[in-house]
Design brief:
178 residues; alpha/beta; 3-stranded antiparallel sheet; 6 helices; 6 strands; 35% helix; globular
């Protein structure tokens, strides 16, 4: 919230505090825990507000989904596979700005950048990796399996940009593991 407000955005929060009474579903889907977010976005759009996006998380905060105005008074859900690719892109770009990303001076740098995913992740991550020239490592489904894969890759000298279960949108990194 503070980061978005510092960038000049007005942030409207819905259920921002942890709750014991679980007033929503577990998964970040329109049919589950994003119903309140969708309703609030539609209310704001109908009130003439300039709504940019809505971001909803699952109950432990490692999976998210984004709702966007459709330009016709409604709201559409981006989808967890696409959100995971956006997370991966941001992670790779963070590395690119911190490291020497110029392939002419260090041709092995991109080859060492890796995103670790579960085997249920769609091919969209492969398409993304082919464009940027990075590696995708695939492990079995389950956060523990992906974290273990990421740790093994790190020990082998790979620069693990992101790990997670792209099939459900969870995004983790080696510095912040569930």
């Amino acid at each position: 919230k503070k980061q978005l407000e510092a960038m000049g955005y007005k942030v409207v929060e819905i259920n921002p505090r942890p709750r014991y009474d679980m007033n929503r579903g577990l998964d970040p889907t329109v049919d589950s825990n994003l119903t309140g977010l969708r309703s609030e976005m539609l209310r704001l759009i109908n009130a003439g507000e300039n709504v940019v996006a809505g971001i909803g998380y699952d109950t432990d905060g490692d999976r998210k989904n984004i709702l966007l105005p459709d330009g016709m008074g409604g709201v559409v859900c981006v989808g967890v596979q696409q959100i995971f690719v956006l997370d991966a892109l941001c992670s790779v770009m963070d590395i690119a700005t911190a490291e020497d990303w110029n392939k002419d001076t260090d041709p092995d740098l991109k080859a060492g950048v890796t995103v670790a995913v579960n085997d249920a992740t769609s091919s969209i991550i492969e398409q993304f990796s082919n464009i940027l020239g990075i590696t995708v490592a695939t492990g079995e489904t389950g956060e523990a399996n992906i974290v273990t894969l990421g740790e093994k890759l790190d020990k082998k000298g790979k620069l693990v940009a992101l790990l997670g279960e792209g099939s459900n949108g969870s995004a983790l990194n080696l510095g912040l593991k569930v």
